[in-house]
Description:
This protein has 220 residues and is mainly beta. The chain has three helices and twelve strands.
Amino acid sequence: MGTREGLLGKKVGMSRVFDDRGQVVPVTVIEAGPCYVTQIKTAATDGYNAIQLGFGAAKRLNKPERGHLSKATPVKHLHEVRTDDTGRYTVGQSVDVGVFKVGDLVDVIGLSRGRGFAGVMKRHGFAGGPATRGQSDRQRHPGSIGTTNQPGWVEKGRRMPGHMGNARSTVMNLRVVLVDAERNLLAVEGGVPGAPEGLLCIRRALKVAKVVKTPPPTRK
């Protein structure tokens, strides 16, 4: 496979495995694929190379969706993934968890858990106000949010209470610990965004840290 492929899947839950040294490794189990290629985009026609993947059986499709998926398997979720070589794909082709192997580094994208309305201490990590000197009900308040004359309004982007979570979140450079092609299961080290059964996109890591090896000191 190329270096920029990915898969769609859903979060199953967290577990743990033991590595070769007997150390406990927390992992997240993901049901990745099978996905189906529903559209192919090339640099000649669209300006970039990508494939559109579908995941999950669709119970009902509207007329535009039926037209779009006329040559592919009816699916519930669609997501576009960049790729280096579109020539190896055809519409309707199946892509499974076999594109990854143990030891690969991947990025996992999903929606974070929704927390509802939250204050500034929970949402942004504010320290809160003083609990003494006459402050009876200001311990968890944000404090002043504006100025008097200049500029005279609340600045755009001011961190304030509001809706927390349920936003796109990416966890990068997670190591693949287990690949089970028979059950379409993928286990990655650490946690991933979202709740169980949440939709995830798993792609090859784009920003792999380079390890700089320093030479040993020379003795004079």
